[in-house]
Amino acid sequence: MTTTQERTAGPGFDPIEQLEAWLEANWDPELTVGEWWERLGLSGWSAPMLPEERFGKGLTRRDALRVSRAIGGFGALPAPAGLGLNLAAPTIATHGTPEQVEGYVRDIVTGAKAWCQLFSEPGAGSDLAGLTTRAERDGDVWVVNGQKVWTSGGQLADLGMLLARTNPDAPKHQGISWFAIDMHQPGIEIRPLRQMTGASNFNEVFLTDAVVPDSARIGDLNNGWAVANTTLAYERAGMGAGGDGAAMGYAHPGTVAGHLGRRVGDFVRPTRDSSEEGRPPRNALPVEAYIELARRLGRSEDPVIRQGLVRLHTLRELARMNTERHRATVAAGRDIPGIANFSKLLMADIVRLTRDLGLQILGPRGTLHAYDDAGRAALRELPGDDGAAAVTSQALGAQAMPIFGGTDQVQRNIIGERVLGLPKEPGDLSTVPFSQLPKNG
Q1: What does residue 124 show for φ and ψ, rounded to 5 degrees?
Q2: Using CA atoms, how far apart are residues 166 and 67, in angstroms rounded to an integer?
Q3: Which helix (H) or strand (E) holds 159?
Q4: Dist CA 107 CA 42 (whole Å)
Q5: Which of 20, 88, 141, 201 has the most CB atoms around its CB within 10 Å?
Q6: Pseudo-torsion of CA 93, 94, 100, 106, nearest 10°?
Q7: 415 DSSP 8-state letter
Q8: Are 126 and 162 in contact (CB under 8 A)?
Q9: Which residue has the higher pLDDT, 49 or 331?
């Protein structure tokens, strides 16, 4: 493999200039997906926010987003997307041993293994620390029993980020451990959940005498809540940043999807030109797409819709400025307490506004949504065609953002208690052993 002389620090350093030189020397559409991701991951460009000694480049979130866009803009397949890269890798890089980083993070950045998140339970969603999945030690392994729900990508995962209760006699936040569990074992059953959007992105997972070695425990025993908070912080920061839509192709990491052995060039497609059929490009920002849709449907002069478009643009600019402000603060050696929580709350507002505005633009057409190819073909004959389908899909899925990753109410509690220093809610049960808590306590 050809390599280039690289530097990752110093005045005037531009990671994009270095990346483009690396891509010129290394991109080859005739490679397999697995071969390409191995090159990208071991070079540090798959997860550039990670430290250099942990398969990254030590870049800021802003520069990491620029890297992602630049890879797509070059015409190469971007890094292996998913919860492994976004959540598991930075968590393990923060709390794992060098052996765990080598064993787990390497397989994440090279796309060799896909991950899911086994956190939420039927009785422990917003109050995640109330989880009841048990892990009981048997020599060098833990035997796990319980149920998880809302598990994104569980059907494609090789490994799961598992939170399990390892000491039921400790207070509920202090008796939890974080494990990397093998999803390919008889004790794990995955059942897809069909959403009102028609998709099945989430699953419920049943663990019956599933086994995980103690060597797969990330962080100290019974200190999994601290490790989980790292995972959740990255999750909320990612949600707050929103998607950049830069990827020009998509392949699934891991062994289940079957993409690793296929030709990588087959997963790269050109970005649709903005002039095609008079529609906005596929990766247009939502506000731009909705402006174009309003024009096509003759609603662009409606003062209420115009006001909504301006408000949507304003909120997105606020989100962008928050990211820039945080970047400058971190560069100065400081931090903004609660920025991930603020950002997630703002993104939830943006998602809701996008839903309401899109349905306003569509009018009665917004009440129609198809769940199969025949239905989509029929609706394509109505005003709004593919643009309307995208709006109704977004509207049906908009309810998720204010809930997953911690509800809006949880974010406000965190900001109030941990950022503003307000007193906790009355009836604090944080010191009561979990085994003595009342049901749902």
Answers
A1: -145, 80
A2: 40
A3: strand 159-165
A4: 10
A5: 88
A6: -10
A7: I
A8: no
A9: 49
Q: For residue 120, what pLDDT is reported?
A: 93
Angle CA 76–82–83, to nearest 5:
150
426: its two tokens: 């009355």
CA distance 302 to 313: 17
Residue 170 burial (CB < 10 Å; 0-12/13-18/19+)?
A: middle
Percent of the chain topping pLDDT 90: 58
pLDDT tens figures, 57-113: 999 877 888 899 899 999 999 999 999 999 999 999 999 999 999 999 999 999 999
Domains 115-223 and 272-406 share a fold: no
Q: Which residue, chain included where needed, has tokens 């062994």?
A: 255
Q: Which CATH architecture has domain 115-223?
A: Beta Barrel (2.40)
* pTM: predicted TM-score of the whole model, two decimal places: 0.77
Q: In whole angstroms, what is the distance from residue 44 CA to residue 40 CA?
A: 7
pLDDT tens for 184-214 read 999 999 999 988 877 777 899 999 999 999 9
